[in-house]
Design goal:
The protein has 292 residues and is α/β, with parallel strands linked by helices. Helices cover 33% and strands 20% of the residues. It has helices at residues 28-46, 73-78, 83-95, 132-144, 188-191, 207-212, 220-236, 262-266, 278-291; strands spanning 11-12, 18-24, 50-56, 100-102, 121-127, 149-156, 160-166, 240-241, 243-250, 253-259. α1 runs parallel beside α3 (83-95) and α1 packs parallel to α7 (220-236).
Length: 292
């Protein structure tokens, strides 16, 4: 019997005085998460920890959102209320917070309005989007700021999902030491590159439509939101991360973490492939340019 147990590492956030969170997407998962983060902001304030929250989503509230997402029938009846503005208004009124709403579709360039360059600030962008285009913009943000922006990505199917956290696309940034500390984690989009690819699906249904047709659990988004909120709690209150991802299933109910180890980190950065002939590289580059 092999009783060897691989050493686990943790990322610490001991110097952070401000946690600045950009929540992209406030639909099924995002609206439930916004409520959880509002409560966390109150708790953090009581402990002298400052959390700033900005909600980003250009969608407006529709009748089909009521119940599955945290919106009221009155807001849906108007047909002109943006989801992020509605949530910010209600949470600010309830908790006395200063949550900001950006009723826009997120692009990587918007991060410049949010970033504050300080070694005492931790920047976290949370992606609760259900399309590859939104994820591509978040991935560009993480890569562009070279380790200065942490990202959490949430994705789910009918009864299962996964949460990933990381902050770098450069394997040299990830250092493990003899004290059990890790300096950085692979970006969610390094951990799971397929998240950035176009899904081969014609006329995809939204989570709201799938739930109405009973093809998606009403609770799967809430479970994802709870796990994300726990990650944020660990970062901002406990000041550490010991996991880089969590997979869950509701039927049967099971949750599987991916701990930070040398093996799990190294697996995200496979050895470089053998160089392709120049002609092949040029062709691939042209195809990529055409897709943009």
């Amino acid at each position: 019997m092999n009783l060897n147990i691989e050493e686990r590492y943790r990322v610490v956030f001991g110097d952070s005085k401000f946690f600045r969170i950009l929540l992209v997407g406030v639909g099924g998962t995002g609206s439930a998460l916004a409520l959880a983060l509002g409560g966390l902001m109150v708790h953090a304030r009581q402990k002298g920890i400052h959390i700033e929250l900005t909600l980003v989503d250009d969608d407006k509230i529709e009748e089909r959102n009521v119940g599955r997402q945290l919106f009221a029938p009155a807001s849906a009846a108007r047909g002109t209320v943006h989801k992020c503005a509605d949530l910010a208004l209600r949470l600010n009124a309830a908790y006395g917070l200063g949550i900001v709403a950006w009723p826009e579709r997120y692009t990587a360039g918007m991060a410049g309005r949010w970033m504050r360059y300080s070694h005492t600030d931790t920047h976290l962008i949370i992606g609760c989007v259900d399309n590859y285009q939104g994820r591509q913009e978040i991935a560009k943000t993480v890569e562009g700021y070279s380790g200065q922006v942490w990202a959490i990505d949430s994705g789910n199917a009918a009864f299962n999902g996964q949460i990933l956290v990381g902050n770098t696309t450069n394997k040299e940034h990830v250092q493990l030491d003899n004290l059990g500390l890790c300096t950085a984690l692979p970006s969610p989009y390094i951990q799971e590159p397929n998240l950035l690819l176009l899904e081969e699906e014609t006329q995809p249904l939204s989570c709201a439509d799938l739930t109405l047709r009973e093809e998606q659990s009403l609770m799967v988004n809430r479970m994802a939101a709870t796990i994300i909120a726990q990650y944020v709690y660990n970062m901002s209150i406990r000041r550490q991360l010991t996991q880089m991802s969590t997979a869950f299933n509701l039927e049967p109910t099971v949750m599987t973490p991916t701990f930070i180890t040398e093996t799990t980190v190294t697996a995200c950065f496979p050895p470089a492939a053998v160089a392709e002939p120049a002609a092949a590289v040029a062709t691939a580059t042209t195809m990529e340019d055409d897709d943009e």
